[in-house]
Write a sequence for this structure.
């Protein structure tokens, strides 16, 4: 009987520890930014398993405006899952939020498709990170061309980042993020009243 | 000393339990299809946290072809994470794979956007499931309009599904799935040589 009680106690404790490990795994933001040398961002290799928040085709707020004759570019945006879940609860981004922006080539001809465009090669990979250590609270990173991505890249600075900061300050619906283009986030931000005035 | 040994035993056991919970979570396909009444699919409410595999704009292989004057529709495809991971290892889909297809309205005017299109309201939600119990090994489901989604829906049958099966048989690059439109999957299918002849 005492042995049974002891076993039950051990199993209960084991379960509690296991549970706390699991909960801890969710809260410790294991999917947040990884840095090298303090502020250089290590490219997340598994961002395609992160939460997708929206796509666009031919959006021209990108610095690289496509010429009218070039095939338009798809933009896919992903966010680290723990920050996505936090946003769905609060309508705001926790420190350590990582946005990954993919630019992908578009193509139109492949059976059974008879029109419209779908996504092909990765062209450019960029990131935006919320981290209180940066002057504006957010930093921007460019991992370069899809065929030659950097494994680690320092935050953009000087003129390279000025237009990012200006546009993300002036036109972003929530904090420094274009929630107006991400329908599931936009709905939550409306409910939580975290949209900036004018949205 | 006995207390120390006891604590070590508890912690070791806790670790094993935690490990088994994790492994179990990955292998039991907790993210697979949920049915009501045998074969009616329960709408996955968290598919936006599943793995995104690709977007298209204005693709016309959809049954509902947009008229030339209508705004083109975005299509987003998501797959349950455990099946995605299995595909990345093998280039094939395990039994219990669930594809979710979203059709979303596109819009073009919102600062700082000066062209191109981004995603807005959910129009239609559909699913495709690999399940050996169905005649073709795959079944197709339609949860209806975005403003009035069904919580549970039976597999499409008869004429409603004939065109799905025909097109997914004739034109899909891997099994019954249009991997030719999903760039990260296409690369893996090429490496694993699981593309059908002609792709």
């Amino acid at each position: 009987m005492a042995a049974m009680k002891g076993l039950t106690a051990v199993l209960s404790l084991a379960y509690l520890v296991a549970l706390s490990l699991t909960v801890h795994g969710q809260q410790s933001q294991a999917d947040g930014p990884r840095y090298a040398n303090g502020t250089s961002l290590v490219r997340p290799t598994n961002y395609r398993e992160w939460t997708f928040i929206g796509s666009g085709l031919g959006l021209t707020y990108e610095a690289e405006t496509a010429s009218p004759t070039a095939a338009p570019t798809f933009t896919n945006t992903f966010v680290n899952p723990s920050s996505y879940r936090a946003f769905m609860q609060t309508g705001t981004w926790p420190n350590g939020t990582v946005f990954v922006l993919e630019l992908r080539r578009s193509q139109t001809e492949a059976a059974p498709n008879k029109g419209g465009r779908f996504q092909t090669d990765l062209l450019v990979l960029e990131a935006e990170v919320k981290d209180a250590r940066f002057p504006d609270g957010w930093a921007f990173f460019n991992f370069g061309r899809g065929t030659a991505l950097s494994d680690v890249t320092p935050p953009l600075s000087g003129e390279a980042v000025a237009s990012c900061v200006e546009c993300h300050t002036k036109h972003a619906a929530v904090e420094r993020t274009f929630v107006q283009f991400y329908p599931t986030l936009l709905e939550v931000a409306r409910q939580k009243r975290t949209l900036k005035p004018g949205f």
In short: The helical segments of chain B are 2-27, 81-90, 159-170, 183-192.
